[in-house]
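Reagents: none. Just compute today. Zn(2)-C6 fungal-type domain-containing protein.
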Amino acid sequence: MAYRGKPSKACQRCRERKLRCDLRKECSSCLRVGAQCSGYRDTEALRIADQTQSVQSKVLGRKAGKAKASPVVGPAFEHLHLPVDIGAQARGFFTACYIADLNRAWYFMVPHLQKGNLPEHLALCLDAVSLAFLHQRTQSTSARDLGFRKYANALRMTNCALQNTDPTQVSATLGASLLLDLFEKVMNPEASNHKAKRAHLDGALALVKVKGLDSFRTEADKRMLFRVVMNAVVTSMSRKDPVDPEIPRILTHVGTCGGTEDWSCPFEHLMFEMSDLVSGSSRGTLPTKESIQKCKELDRKFSELPVPGESKGTNFSDIRKRSPIGGETDAGYSNGKNLGRWVMTRSMMRILLCEEIVASSTGPHTNDADVETSRNTITDAIEDIGSFAMAIAGRGLSISNKIKIEPGREKPHILTVDHFVDLTFLVFGLCIAAWAPHCPQETRDWNLKHLGYIADYYGIRDAETFRQYLLKGGKKLSPWDVYSIMGDHSFVL
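Predicted 3D structure written out:
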């Protein structure tokens, strides 16, 4: 409220025209022209007036740099949000998860993105993969259909780019081949045609052979070649095929892994050995006794791998004690992303090797000591996965058994991209642990319960799918099948 002084008693017409009013009910000025007179006013009722709205308008007008504020009329403005293109959403999500911010498995794409003008075939491949990735995570039919259309155009444009002799386009074309390979693996994880599944990977290897390793010299090129190596090794291991002879040469050219994480290099060499071992065992070219011995030797090498982010000589069992299953701290997991991949990959390899030892130790090859040691190793590897699960829970993911899910919750918890990548690692690891034939029943129940929490609270569809499969006693679904169905080729261990 504000005092506005003594008001005039004149009628409305006299005030507006600034005439002298005789202060009657019908003043002479109005009668003279035949106008309707409003009569004089009661000044006592006009001394106090509510000027709140006017004052607010003036203040807001000054803040906006306006010379004169007008009174606020009508309802306040509503904030309207324009719809975002689904392709832009998909590319932004894929970029945040696997290129620029978190996992960085496709970090070699950054130089191409920074140029601002991607080659058309590479841009189409990136859009197709991003839409496939969005569909895989959200089951969006719009993303799926648009992704297939982009993929068809990308194939045509990439075939045209292969005819281009410009040496500056070799890197972009190799990147396009890798993206097309990822699209096939994400959109058709259960495809039975093995040759079709690895057609783009074989094309990438052929391109490297034709153009020569000397065509790939930049840091981004080396990262890309390392990606080719990882794709080839994982594909070979999942299909129990020997590694392409060109792969060791490529890795030698890459040298120090082109700036990739230090832990990846020793892992890669061990995975070469394991791929050859698995291939020889499945084809019957490796005697059982020799196979068991190689499995034991490889398991020893995996157990001695250096822990990323820790001082040299640190044993992982010491780190695990800082964050045991059921604990409330993640003190041993300060380097979360690299250590998470390290834990899951190391644990899976050791479980696979030791399960092979137990399965092969029958008849004349029975060795009770080896079987007992292998079973203990399997238990330790599963404990490693459980410790990492509790570490993630300590970083803010409400999946531990001390967290109660809200009853009747209709919508899943909204994930940050950081948490999403954590959960991707975690679901994969929990599935591996629960799959292991020699996993203790109590530990398997613990893993299945946490898969249920992740599915219910975070809306991760794959977690519930694998949980139901494992509850029914499914053992034919190997860790590599889980890896493929989840679309985790996007980060390749």
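The two ends are 69 Å apart (CA to CA).
Action item: order primers for follow-up constructs.
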